[in-house]
Amino acid sequence: MAMNSVPTGAQIKRIPKVLLHDHLDGGLRPQTIIDIAAEIGYKALPTTDALELATWFRESCDSGSLVRYLETFSHTIAVMQRHEDIIRVARECALDLARDGVVYAEVRGAPELFTEKGLSMSDVIEATLEGYRQGMAEAKAEGHEIVVFSLLCGMRQNKHSQEVAELVVKYRDRGVVGFDIAGPEDGFPPSDQKETFDYLRKENAHFTIHAGEAYGLPSIWEAIQLCGAERLGHGVRIIDDIDFSGPVPALGELASYVRDRRIPLELCPTSNLQTGAAKSYAEHPIGALAKLRFRVTLNTDNRLMSQTSMSIEMGEAVKAFGWDFIELQRVTINAMKSAFISYPERLKIIESVIKPGYTKIASE
């Protein structure tokens, strides 16, 4: 086989992957939720059967509504309030990603959500980082090398973003590589947090912003031009600034700026289908945006809610758009180039892990 051939499912599972947009509280194992719920006396789960629970999450999130989608997190947040439970969830996250071929991941979470039972936000961060360390060590023992870092989210409807941003700076040499704002977009524009983004820039700290998912081009414009986002969390609605009516797609000013500046798009197709941003994988803008050479990256968003993985996302992209090894490697390198770690570290993973991995598997 060659790099321009179509990979099989088994090959997709093995090729190196890079994940930039994945929520820790959206990726729990169903059995873990059930186990912790039993330990803490949490009675609100719709079922205590792991397969049924997995199906319930997926079906609840297939509503086409971002608001309804976000409501499912009440269960996962409820079982992540103890130090040991956060460690377990983070450890299993690192392990599950590694087993799926992910070699580098930035996993995000909002520390403020896990302080209901007395933990401080620093406690939450330290438990999360300890879990990643344990998961990376276990994965290595299994023969899977993975590096996992943390992104800290402020919830855009709350008032803790500045405190969270200061914790990003505090923990940036200990496993935290950046900041994000998450939560409902409509009614909570990125510019509400402008002072926090100004602070992060003054501290030379990295940040991405959820924008252009449920809300359109104004959200993307604010995230980039008012707040200085380095990456766009989703950003899928940039497609609204491209005119496909003629023989050649015509990019509007904002779309041109995003492409020309190589601003990474953290695209999450399966999640977008659930929240109504696209009707089918084949119609998802990622196909057109990749052809137009935007800096497209492929991501999972919430593996539990979407019943997905990086291998599943790649497999769907191969089926929908005919992507070959070259295209999969391109989005993987796009993601690695866009990571919030130093340039030498990014280059090392590209040259020593990603390129050799793709070449080896494509030649088999």
Write the CATH architecture name.
Answer: Alpha-Beta Barrel
The beta-strand count equals 10
What separation lies between the terminal Cα atoms?
Answer: 6 Å
Mean pLDDT: 95
The SSE order reads HEHHHHHEHEHEHEHEEEHEHHEHHHH
Shape: globular
How many helices? The count is 17
Q: How are the strands of the largest sheet arranged?
A: 1-2-3-4
Classified in CATH, the superfamily is Metal-dependent hydrolases
CATH class: Alpha Beta
Our count of domains comes out at 1
Which ranges are low-confidence, i.e. pLDDT below 50, for 5 or more consecutive residues? none
Task: Give the DSSP E fraction (strand runs of 2 or more residues).
Answer: 5-15%
Q: What gyration radius follows from the Cα positions, in whole Å?
A: 19 Å
Q: How many strands, what sense, and barrel or not for the largest sheet?
A: 4 strands, parallel
Question: Strand pairing plus helix content: what structural class?
Answer: alpha/beta
The CATH topology annotation reads as: TIM Barrel
Give the proportion of residues in helices: 40-55%
